[in-house]
Amino acid sequence: MILLVIVASILIAAITIIQFNKQSKEYHEQRLERKENHLILNLNYFLSESKAERLDSIPQNKINEITDIHEIPFELYSLQGNLLKSSISESKNNFEKIISPEILTFFQKENKTRYVKDSEDSRYSKSSYNLIYNNKTPIGIIHMPYYIDDSLSRNELKSFLMNLGIVYINMLLIAFVFAYFLSNYITQSLTRISQRIKTTKLNEENAKIDIEKTPMEVSILIDSYNSMIDDLEESAIKLAKSERETAWREMAKQVAHEIKNPLTPMRLTIQSFEKNFNPEDNKNKEKIRGFSKSLIEQIDTMSSIATAFSDFANMPEQKRELLNVVKVVQIALDIFDKDYVEYTIENDEILTLFDRTQLIRVVTNLLNNAIQAIPEDRDPMILVSIHSNKKNVVINIQDNGNGISEENKTKIFEPSFTTKSSGMGLGLSMIQSIMNAYNGSITFKTKENQGTTFKVTFPKKLK
To answer: Which one of 314, 340, 375 terminates a domain?
Structure first.
């Protein structure tokens, strides 16, 4: 818009100057021709009244009188080009006494038109030559030097251009203001769309943008965004359903696999007992005791699988109670009662809002993993430490086990992933779910064959 105003002002100024020069040129050409015709008529009238047949017979005072009447100087030449009479004083006359051959040749060819040329004298802009007749017979040549004075017209042009400039400067200011508010009006809608797009998430409900009070061009974009939100919600529902189905399908496979493991030895034990059982054998009590013990061990394995699956399926409800983290962790450590577990604390009391059962479950799972990660040929050493900062409670559990390999680092929190021969691999995934529910996090640092440190962080109770 601003560029359009600037280009328009330049074009109008250029056209105005061109038109002025054209009109000025036409005006002076017509003025020169009118004055020349009047001069010739006046001279012809004098020659007719005085019955003079030669130009040099015209008195000088008559020449000066005609010049004063028409306000233009002139000179009279013979047909041979010699100067006869002049209204210009000799001190100011810079013209030659003889007409140039070019002009004489022009009139000698019986050319009855005027001969006009641009003057080389800086005081004049044009020189006009024409024939003077007496009874239709040419008797001489008249020369009129013409000075173009455009000072008045140029002042008028300058004044016009200044007024035009003022008008266009005001138009530019108006265009700037209008463009500013228009761009703000448009960009406000674009900014709203940009902010909404930044906050758009697949797994959350996304609000649509109100299409009212928006420019027509932007409303098309908003309509497209709202349509995208509808498609996104539909895709999110389908994706969530697909993820749930996939997760439960994988979990069902894992549970079925884990249950089959103890069922096979149970089947073999029962078949062996049935085949070798002898009612009259005196060792039947010992055989029944061994048989029962084997079945109980396999049943306990199946029970632990069911418990792990149940714990994972029942995601923690966000029950919050005021706890002293130091005492709750001590309770979890007492369950293990291991001499190689070292416990260090920063303060005797660190308060938080957490579920006691869930916090004990987090610590016991991490301790159990730490114990199982230590190989049998190595002296176990586990360090549990608790400290706090301005906002969070931090629990570190460090072991000197085998560590986590590079390829398993990205899988460690996935459900059903495990490096152990038994278990369902739900412990760390369950801990991560608990920490997410309480706005916390779980991370780890590890070195192969040197050990792993798990770091649990969650908000503490601010005083």
So the answer is: 314
Please write down the long-range contacts of 343-350, taking CB distance under 8 Å and 24 or more positions apart.
343/384, 343/385, 344/383, 344/384, 344/385, 344/386, 345/385, 345/386, 345/387, 346/386, 346/387, 346/388, 347/388, 349/324, 350/324, 350/325, 350/326, 350/386, 350/388, 350/393, 350/460
Amino acid at 35: K
Decide which of 96, 121, 152 is a domain's last residue: 152
- pLDDT (tens digit, 9 = 90+) per residue, 52-80? 778 888 888 888 888 888 888 888 888 88
Q: Are residues 310 and 336 in the same domain?
A: no
Residue 178 within any structural domain of the chain: no
Query: What average pLDDT does the chain have?
Result: 80
Same domain, 133 and 51: yes
Domain count, the chain: 3
pLDDT in tens, 398-445: 999 988 888 888 888 876 666 665 555 567 888 888 888 888 999 999
Does residue 442 belong to any structural domain of this protein?
yes
Confirm if 361 and 449 have CB atoms less than 8 A apart.
Answer: no
0.85 surpassed by pTM: no
Residue 72: Cβ-neighbour burial (10 angstroms; 0-12, 13-18, 19+):
buried
Q: Quote the CA–CA distance of 279 and 252 in Å, as a whole number.
A: 42
Domain contains 322: yes
Instruction: Give the count of alpha carbons within 13 A of 88, CB side only.
Output: 19
Residues 118 and 228 in one domain: no
CA angle 146, 149, 150 (to 5 degrees): 135
CA 70/CA 140 separation, integer angstroms: 20
Is the Cβ–Cβ distance between 265 and 229 less than 8 Å? no
CA gap 247, 84 in Å, rounded: 122
Show Cβ contacts of residue 335 under 8 Å, excluding neighbours closer than 6 positions. Answer: 364
Q: Are 28 and 97 in the same domain?
A: yes
Domain residues for 233? 200-314
Same domain, 205 and 248: yes
Q: Convert 118-183 into a string of H (helix), E (strand) and C (coil).
A: ECCCCCCCEEEEEEEEECCEEEEEEEEEECCCCHHHHHHHHHHHHHHHHHHHHHHHHHHHHHHHHH
Tell me how far CA of residue 7 lies from CA of 4, 172, 173, 177, 440, in angstroms: 5, 11, 15, 18, 63
Q: Do 298 and 265 form a contact (C-beta atoms < 8 A)?
A: yes
Q: Give the CATH number of the domain where residue 400 resides.
A: 3.30.565.10
- Axis crossing angle, helix 60-70 with helix 2-50, rounded to the nearest 10: 150
- Range list of β-strands (E), 239-371: 321-324, 341-345, 351-354
